[in-house]
Protein backbone atom coordinates (compact mmCIF):
# COMPACT_ATOMS: atom_id res chain seq x y z
CA UNK A 1 0.00 0.00 0.00
CA UNK A 2 1.25 3.50 -0.82
CA UNK A 3 2.29 5.30 2.31
CA UNK A 4 2.95 9.01 2.14
CA UNK A 5 6.37 10.01 3.42
CA UNK A 6 6.54 12.52 6.27
CA UNK A 7 9.74 14.44 6.94
CA UNK A 8 10.83 17.25 9.26
CA UNK A 9 12.79 20.15 7.87
CA UNK A 10 14.84 22.10 10.40
CA UNK A 11 15.94 25.54 9.23
CA UNK A 12 15.07 29.21 9.54
CA UNK A 13 12.12 31.08 8.12
CA UNK A 14 13.44 33.94 6.02
CA UNK A 15 10.14 35.72 5.45
CA UNK A 16 11.20 37.44 2.21
CA UNK A 17 13.81 36.21 -0.22
CA UNK A 18 12.96 32.59 -1.12
CA UNK A 19 15.34 30.32 0.77
CA UNK A 20 15.34 27.71 3.53
CA UNK A 21 11.79 26.79 4.67
CA UNK A 22 9.99 28.92 2.08
CA UNK A 23 11.73 26.80 -0.58
CA UNK A 24 11.81 23.39 1.13
CA UNK A 25 8.11 23.35 2.00
CA UNK A 26 6.67 24.05 -1.47
CA UNK A 27 9.20 21.89 -3.33
CA UNK A 28 8.73 18.85 -1.10
CA UNK A 29 4.96 19.34 -0.98
CA UNK A 30 4.85 19.35 -4.79
CA UNK A 31 6.68 16.03 -4.74
CA UNK A 32 3.98 14.60 -2.47
CA UNK A 33 6.08 14.61 0.69
CA UNK A 34 4.37 15.74 3.90
CA UNK A 35 6.71 18.36 5.30
CA UNK A 36 6.69 19.16 9.00
CA UNK A 37 8.63 22.31 9.83
CA UNK A 38 10.85 23.04 12.81
CA UNK A 39 11.76 26.72 12.42
CA UNK A 40 14.98 27.66 14.20
CA UNK A 41 14.79 31.42 13.70
CA UNK A 42 12.63 33.95 11.94
CA UNK A 43 14.29 36.65 9.85
CA UNK A 44 12.75 39.46 7.82
CA UNK A 45 15.01 38.41 4.91
CA UNK A 46 17.98 36.08 4.50
CA UNK A 47 21.42 37.48 5.35
CA UNK A 48 22.90 37.57 1.84
CA UNK A 49 22.52 40.82 -0.07
CA UNK A 50 20.37 42.58 2.55
CA UNK A 51 21.30 44.83 5.44
CA UNK A 52 19.14 45.75 8.43
CA UNK A 53 17.32 42.42 8.57
CA UNK A 54 15.58 41.36 11.78
CA UNK A 55 16.26 37.99 13.42
CA UNK A 56 14.27 36.30 16.19
CA UNK A 57 16.03 33.23 17.54
CA UNK A 58 13.53 30.41 18.14
CA UNK A 59 16.01 28.08 19.84
CA UNK A 60 14.02 27.99 23.09
CA UNK A 61 11.02 26.56 21.20
CA UNK A 62 12.90 23.62 19.67
CA UNK A 63 12.82 21.17 22.60
CA UNK A 64 9.24 21.94 23.70
CA UNK A 65 8.04 21.36 20.13
CA UNK A 66 9.94 18.07 19.74
CA UNK A 67 8.89 16.89 23.21
CA UNK A 68 5.29 17.45 22.23
CA UNK A 69 5.70 15.49 19.00
CA UNK A 70 7.35 12.64 20.92
CA UNK A 71 4.38 12.50 23.28
CA UNK A 72 2.09 11.63 20.35
CA UNK A 73 2.00 7.86 20.08
CA UNK A 74 0.71 7.69 16.51
CA UNK A 75 3.14 9.99 14.74
CA UNK A 76 5.86 8.66 12.47
CA UNK A 77 8.68 10.45 10.63
CA UNK A 78 10.61 9.08 7.65
CA UNK A 79 13.32 11.68 7.44
CA UNK A 80 14.93 14.87 8.66
CA UNK A 81 16.38 17.55 6.42
CA UNK A 82 18.46 20.34 7.92
CA UNK A 83 19.63 23.51 6.18
CA UNK A 84 20.77 26.91 7.43
CA UNK A 85 21.21 26.92 11.22
CA UNK A 86 21.91 30.15 13.05
CA UNK A 87 24.53 29.14 15.66
CA UNK A 88 26.72 26.39 17.10
CA UNK A 89 24.21 26.11 19.95
CA UNK A 90 21.44 25.38 17.45
CA UNK A 91 23.56 22.65 15.87
CA UNK A 92 23.99 20.98 19.29
CA UNK A 93 20.23 21.09 19.83
CA UNK A 94 19.57 19.67 16.38
CA UNK A 95 21.89 16.74 17.15
CA UNK A 96 19.79 16.09 20.25
CA UNK A 97 16.65 16.20 18.10
CA UNK A 98 18.17 13.58 15.74
CA UNK A 99 18.73 11.25 18.72
CA UNK A 100 15.24 11.75 20.11
CA UNK A 101 13.48 11.13 16.83
CA UNK A 102 15.76 8.31 15.71
CA UNK A 103 14.88 6.32 18.82
CA UNK A 104 11.31 5.89 17.58
CA UNK A 105 11.73 6.06 13.80
CA UNK A 106 13.80 4.58 11.01
CA UNK A 107 15.03 7.94 9.80
CA UNK A 108 16.75 9.09 6.63
CA UNK A 109 18.82 12.17 7.50
CA UNK A 110 19.93 14.81 4.98
CA UNK A 111 22.24 17.61 6.13
CA UNK A 112 22.86 20.57 3.85
CA UNK A 113 25.63 22.42 5.70
CA UNK A 114 24.38 25.77 4.37
CA UNK A 115 27.01 28.21 5.71
CA UNK A 116 29.38 29.32 2.93
CA UNK A 117 29.91 29.84 -0.80
CA UNK A 118 32.53 31.12 -3.23
CA UNK A 119 35.34 30.54 -0.72
CA UNK A 120 33.69 32.55 2.08
CA UNK A 121 31.49 31.90 5.11
CA UNK A 122 28.07 33.62 5.05
CA UNK A 123 28.08 36.98 6.88
CA UNK A 124 26.72 35.59 10.18
CA UNK A 125 29.45 32.91 10.61
CA UNK A 126 33.12 32.52 11.47
CA UNK A 127 35.26 29.58 10.30
CA UNK A 128 34.75 27.91 13.73
CA UNK A 129 31.10 27.30 12.88
CA UNK A 130 32.22 24.80 10.24
CA UNK A 131 33.67 22.56 13.00
CA UNK A 132 30.21 22.26 14.56
CA UNK A 133 28.62 21.71 11.16
CA UNK A 134 31.07 18.85 10.48
CA UNK A 135 29.80 17.11 13.64
CA UNK A 136 26.23 17.41 12.37
CA UNK A 137 27.23 16.02 8.97
CA UNK A 138 28.74 13.00 10.75
CA UNK A 139 25.21 12.10 11.90
CA UNK A 140 23.71 12.20 8.40
CA UNK A 141 22.96 9.60 5.73
CA UNK A 142 23.41 12.08 2.90
CA UNK A 143 25.25 15.41 2.92
CA UNK A 144 25.02 18.15 0.29
CA UNK A 145 27.92 20.61 0.70
CA UNK A 146 29.13 22.95 -2.00
CA UNK A 147 32.87 23.00 -2.60
CA UNK A 148 33.44 25.91 -0.18
CA UNK A 149 31.53 24.18 2.63
CA UNK A 150 33.42 20.94 2.01
CA UNK A 151 36.79 22.73 2.19
CA UNK A 152 35.79 24.58 5.37
CA UNK A 153 34.72 21.35 7.10
CA UNK A 154 37.83 19.49 5.96
CA UNK A 155 40.08 22.47 6.70
CA UNK A 156 41.70 22.28 3.27
CA UNK A 157 42.42 24.92 0.66
CA UNK A 158 39.46 26.11 -1.42
CA UNK A 159 40.46 26.35 -5.06
CA UNK A 160 38.50 28.75 -7.20
CA UNK A 161 37.75 28.05 -10.87
CA UNK A 162 38.78 24.93 -12.75
CA UNK A 163 40.03 22.12 -10.50
CA UNK A 164 41.23 18.58 -11.11
CA UNK A 165 39.32 15.31 -10.69
CA UNK A 166 42.00 14.24 -8.18
CA UNK A 167 41.22 17.26 -5.98
CA UNK A 168 37.46 16.57 -6.14
CA UNK A 169 37.72 12.82 -5.59
CA UNK A 170 40.01 13.25 -2.61
CA UNK A 171 37.41 15.61 -1.10
CA UNK A 172 34.54 13.21 -1.87
CA UNK A 173 36.33 10.37 -0.10
CA UNK A 174 37.19 12.50 2.92
CA UNK A 175 33.55 13.59 3.19
CA UNK A 176 32.39 9.98 2.86
CA UNK A 177 34.68 9.14 5.79
CA UNK A 178 32.44 11.29 8.00
CA UNK A 179 30.47 8.03 8.17
CA UNK A 180 27.72 9.01 5.71
CA UNK A 181 26.19 6.81 3.00
CA UNK A 182 26.01 9.37 0.19
CA UNK A 183 27.93 12.55 -0.62
CA UNK A 184 26.64 15.14 -3.09
CA UNK A 185 29.26 17.84 -3.75
CA UNK A 186 28.05 20.87 -5.69
CA UNK A 187 29.80 23.84 -7.39
CA UNK A 188 32.29 21.52 -9.08
CA UNK A 189 34.13 23.00 -12.09
CA UNK A 190 36.35 20.67 -14.14
CA UNK A 191 36.27 22.77 -17.32
CA UNK A 192 35.64 26.42 -18.10
CA UNK A 193 31.97 27.30 -18.63
CA UNK A 194 30.51 24.20 -16.96
CA UNK A 195 29.47 23.69 -13.34
CA UNK A 196 27.99 20.64 -11.71
CA UNK A 197 27.88 17.93 -9.11
CA UNK A 198 30.15 15.08 -8.06
CA UNK A 199 28.47 12.34 -6.05
CA UNK A 200 29.79 9.31 -4.22
CA UNK A 201 28.06 6.42 -2.51
CA UNK A 202 31.17 4.54 -1.38
CA UNK A 203 31.27 2.59 -4.66
CA UNK A 204 30.78 4.89 -7.65
CA UNK A 205 31.76 8.47 -8.31
CA UNK A 206 29.41 10.19 -10.75
CA UNK A 207 29.56 13.63 -12.35
CA UNK A 208 26.78 15.74 -13.85
CA UNK A 209 27.35 19.17 -15.42
CA UNK A 210 25.39 22.03 -16.99
CA UNK A 211 26.48 25.24 -18.71
CA UNK A 212 27.36 27.88 -16.13
CA UNK A 213 24.92 30.79 -15.89
CA UNK A 214 26.88 33.87 -14.82
CA UNK A 215 25.76 35.44 -11.54
CA UNK A 216 25.16 34.58 -7.92
CA UNK A 217 21.70 33.21 -7.27
CA UNK A 218 20.56 33.30 -3.64
CA UNK A 219 18.59 30.31 -2.41
CA UNK A 220 19.52 28.11 -5.38
CA UNK A 221 21.30 25.71 -2.98
CA UNK A 222 18.02 25.23 -1.12
CA UNK A 223 16.14 24.56 -4.37
CA UNK A 224 18.80 21.97 -5.18
CA UNK A 225 18.76 20.18 -1.80
CA UNK A 226 14.97 20.16 -1.54
CA UNK A 227 14.49 18.69 -5.01
CA UNK A 228 17.32 16.20 -4.43
CA UNK A 229 15.57 14.96 -1.28
CA UNK A 230 12.22 14.83 -3.10
CA UNK A 231 13.78 12.60 -5.76
CA UNK A 232 15.55 10.35 -3.24
CA UNK A 233 12.33 9.90 -1.24
CA UNK A 234 10.57 8.92 -4.46
CA UNK A 235 13.04 6.04 -4.67
CA UNK A 236 15.31 7.37 -7.41
CA UNK A 237 18.97 6.36 -7.33
CA UNK A 238 21.56 8.91 -6.21
CA UNK A 239 22.64 9.41 -9.83
CA UNK A 240 19.05 10.00 -10.99
CA UNK A 241 18.28 12.29 -8.04
CA UNK A 242 21.31 14.45 -8.88
CA UNK A 243 20.01 14.82 -12.45
CA UNK A 244 16.55 15.87 -11.16
CA UNK A 245 18.02 18.43 -8.72
CA UNK A 246 20.50 19.83 -11.24
CA UNK A 247 18.00 20.17 -14.09
CA UNK A 248 15.32 21.70 -11.86
CA UNK A 249 17.70 24.19 -10.23
CA UNK A 250 19.21 25.07 -13.60
CA UNK A 251 15.75 25.77 -15.05
CA UNK A 252 14.86 28.05 -12.10
CA UNK A 253 18.17 29.94 -12.37
CA UNK A 254 17.79 30.28 -16.15
CA UNK A 255 14.28 31.68 -15.79
CA UNK A 256 15.45 34.13 -13.11
CA UNK A 257 18.35 35.27 -15.25
CA UNK A 258 16.09 35.75 -18.29
CA UNK A 259 13.56 37.72 -16.21
CA UNK A 260 16.35 39.96 -14.85
CA UNK A 261 14.75 40.17 -11.37
CA UNK A 262 17.04 41.21 -8.49
CA UNK A 263 18.82 38.02 -7.47
CA UNK A 264 18.68 38.69 -3.75
CA UNK A 265 14.96 37.81 -3.85
CA UNK A 266 15.85 34.24 -4.75
CA UNK A 267 15.21 32.16 -7.86
CA UNK A 268 11.87 31.66 -9.57
CA UNK A 269 11.46 28.01 -8.71
CA UNK A 270 7.67 28.35 -8.48
CA UNK A 271 7.03 28.77 -12.20
CA UNK A 272 9.38 25.87 -12.94
CA UNK A 273 7.39 23.43 -10.80
CA UNK A 274 5.97 21.84 -13.99
CA UNK A 275 9.60 21.03 -14.88
CA UNK A 276 10.03 19.34 -11.50
CA UNK A 277 6.85 17.34 -12.11
CA UNK A 278 8.21 16.14 -15.46
CA UNK A 279 11.57 15.24 -13.96
CA UNK A 280 9.89 13.32 -11.14
CA UNK A 281 7.34 11.82 -13.56
CA UNK A 282 4.38 13.24 -11.60
CA UNK A 283 1.21 13.47 -13.70
O1 LIG B 1 20.37 28.73 2.57
C1 LIG B 1 20.60 30.00 2.44
C2 LIG B 1 20.22 30.82 3.62
C3 LIG B 1 19.17 30.46 4.45
N1 LIG B 1 18.80 31.20 5.51
C4 LIG B 1 19.44 32.35 5.80
C5 LIG B 1 20.49 32.77 5.01
C6 LIG B 1 20.91 31.99 3.90
C7 LIG B 1 22.02 32.42 3.05
O2 LIG B 1 22.60 33.44 3.20
O3 LIG B 1 21.11 33.92 5.28
C8 LIG B 1 19.00 33.18 6.98
Description of the molecule:
- The chain is an alpha/beta fold and about 280 residues long.
- The chain is about 40% helix and about 20% strand.
- It has a 9-stranded mixed beta sheet with strand order 3-2-1-4-5-8-9-10-11, with helices on both faces.
- It is globular, with a radius of gyration of 18 Å.
- About 40% of the residues are buried.
- The mean pLDDT is about 95.
- Bound molecules: 3-hydroxy-5-(hydroxymethyl)-2-methylisonicotinaldehyde (PXL).
- 3-hydroxy-5-(hydroxymethyl)-2-methylisonicotinaldehyde binds near residues 12, 83 and 84.
- The site of 3-hydroxy-5-(hydroxymethyl)-2-methylisonicotinaldehyde has 14 residues, from strand 1 and helix 7.
Report the uncertain regions. Answer: none
Report the helical percentage: 25-40%
> What is Rg?
18 Å
Most strands sheet: 9 strands, mixed
Strand content: 15-25%
> Whole-Å distance between the termini?
19 Å
Q: Could you say which small molecules are bound to this protein?
A: 3-hydroxy-5-(hydroxymethyl)-2-methylisonicotinaldehyde
Question: How would the blueprint of this fold be written?
Answer:
Blueprint: E1 6-16, H1 21-30, E2 34-45, E3 55-57, H2 59-70, E4 79-82, H3 88-104, E5 108-111, E6 116-117, E7 120-121, H4 129-137, E8 142-143, H5 147-154, H6 165-176, E9 182-188, E10 194-200, E11 205-211, H7 220-233, H8 238-259, H9 273-280
Parallel strand pairs: 1-2, 1-4, 4-5, 5-8, 8-9
Antiparallel strand pairs: 2-3, 6-7, 9-10, 10-11
The structure holds 3-hydroxy-5-(hydroxymethyl)-2-methylisonicotinaldehyde (PXL).
Residues 12, 14, 19-20, 43, 46-48, 83-84, 114, 122, 221-222 line the site of 3-hydroxy-5-(hydroxymethyl)-2-methylisonicotinaldehyde.
